[in-house]
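Bench notes, bay 3.
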Amino acid sequence: MTASPAPLVLLLDAVHEALPKGLAAMGFALREAYDGGADDIPEWEKAEGLVIRSRFSLDAAALEKAPHLRWIARVGAGLENIDQATAEKRGITVFHAPEGNRDAVGEHALGMLLSLLHHLPRADREVRQGRWRRAENRGTELRHQTVGIIGYGHMGSALAEKLQGLGCRLLLYDKYKSHYAPPYAEEVRLARLQAEADIISLHTPQTPETEGLIDAAFWRALRKPVIFINTARGRSVVTEDLVEALQTGQVKGACLDVHAYEKSSFEGLASGEVPPALRYLWESEQVMLSPHIAGWTHQSHRRMAEVLLFKIKQHYRL
């Protein structure tokens, strides 16, 4: 009697070895498919599971080409590159792992903020150049400042946990929740957050509703200049409006791990092709930049793999 072939899982992006090892131990056959799309990858139509980060979009057409697909494991928090409506219609379970990198994002946001408040990049650069400017690099303390957190999921709550130990006043806004604030924070409406916050940190997913959420109207609603942090998604912020707010003083500093231009302007553009708003961010000492690495630490790399493996085992009741 011929044994049934092992169910196939396609690894579409490189991930921590804990996930493929665990899947193999569950009895899956694994295929690495790090190049091409649904039309190019052998055995796409046979896959029972897909493991992906963000290399390409799993749109309706790609999903329709996989009639045996039962689940998708997204190594990360965002799901904007997966057609969730089609997946739900087809009965395909979509896993993601925001629990795995929440602390990484919270620490990164806090690190960028402290670096900006204390002028650390500039001070480090100047000392290396033999310049000893103490008064000009005097910092601002975080204690007693009011921090507004927009979006209180895994990432927003991780930042709040870290800030409460530093003596900050915390205002939380989440459009889709109520009665969620921990004892050390206050749940408020967006208008109050905009009126009272000294620092605003964005922690919303990328959806049609959040695209362009932080625009000129958002900045005009502020009652005082703020420092703005974005470790969420670049397309939630209208870059040109942020630059104008920096120029007019509505925003006195920005910490940006994500950027609306990530897929175009950060991959080999000639200097003459860089959009003016992006070039302003590059050149401004009011701005801290990093290359979408907030959630990508050595520890979170493994933790996200372990979270996904746990969820997949639960799916199969193992």
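Next record in the batch:
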Amino acid sequence: MRYLPDGIQMKAADTYTIRELGVPSLVLMERAALATVKAMKEREIDLTEALIVCGSGNNGGDGFAIARLLSEEGLGPEVLFAGKESSLSEECALQKKIVEKLEIPVFTEFPEKEYTVIIDAVFGVGLSREITGHYHDVIDWMNSRKGRKAAVDIPSGVCARTGKVLGTAFCAELTVCMACVKLGCELFPGKACAGETVAVPIGISPDYFRGNDRVCFTYDREDLPALLPKRKPDSHKGTYGRALMITGSPGMAGASCLSAAAAYVVGAGLVQVYTAEENRVILQESLPEAVISCYNEYNESEHKRLMEQANVICIGCGLGRSGLSEQLLVNTLKYLKENEKPCVIDADGLNLLSGHMNLLKELSGRETPVILTPHMKEMSRLTKESIEGIIDSRFEILDRFVREFPAVCVLKDSRTAAAQSGRPVFVNLAGNSAMAKAGSGDVLAGVITGLAAQGMDAFASASAGVFLHACGGDAARDHKGSYSVLARDLISGIGECMADA
């Protein structure tokens, strides 16, 4: 795993390194410059005629140091100073003075020539205000140049916390991030401005963030083997759990099939599907491995019997919003109040839940939180917040929600986040646009359910499930391209990823 701090969190780590560990700020600055030059060389960026655009703060100081390093290699760097002399930080002032003594060209007016690369060192991670006036003109001018584009730590104009563009932003193909990639560099639209992000060591240890539940984290493919539940040589299907999938209203057999198949492919021992009678034949033919139970009308005793047999319950995929569906959800919640079993609520289950949030709150005494998997519109129904408001303040709204309700909340988006009160938020960076197809959410619900069936706790099931689902999407895209991937291909991709783990 790796951390994705925001600007405030990163500044705290920087201050700790300087004040408590005694590493001088100039040492960090030199390492940042060296690492940035190295990263650009590794990507074969032509540095022969580089323009480094520097601000007045320490990000600008990094830029001046980069100019000096390139000059020492016999290259021809030039510097556009976009800041103010009166605002120079101590370190930036010193680096600027060195550059001027070396007679590296430093100017304040836009040059006429083109450069092989434009290096952005105007603003660092502390920017929180809208960019206007002179700085707005500088960044727009930088974007208009023909050369390749690289940013130091974060593209100027991108909020390090939210990824918002603050008026305007530098558009880089490479962002070299100090110690950790900043959260805003991976959230859209910031990610579109950051391009490729690479974290480089400069002497600030990411271990500083260990134990801080306010710092987001993510997984990479090499983490996958450690995330998966272990298989035992002496085992049987009961070892890996029995999942009950309460899914599929009439005509929605596909949702039942996809979610059940996904639970199986990640390792669940037995999957029982409780669905409308009209779906029986389709499910038996499409997924003979599943045990099928059906209803024509609500049967409380049968519903309870199936829940008693299960190790984990998933409800909602294709369930519909009929009165019968509502009875299934309400009585599932009432059952959970008295029984400590994990439960995943998805799709129509969430839409129905939005009218019974009191029942969710009544589960507060349980040790096992329920797992909710809303997309933005479903989250809007659950929270009564606008979709736009959730997009703008997703982490604050997620935090309030999981503090109020006993749930792990998986907020699905291009950057899906999983949150539980008292734990760091997981932000998924895997996956791709090929996954934006009907049925993808059903597969995710099944993946999380299948992992929970094998004894993983709710947050681990949710975060690992989101990541595994996304890795499966990447594998499917590699085989079929960005347009032709179907939800069923995600299941095959997940199996492939697990086989390689």
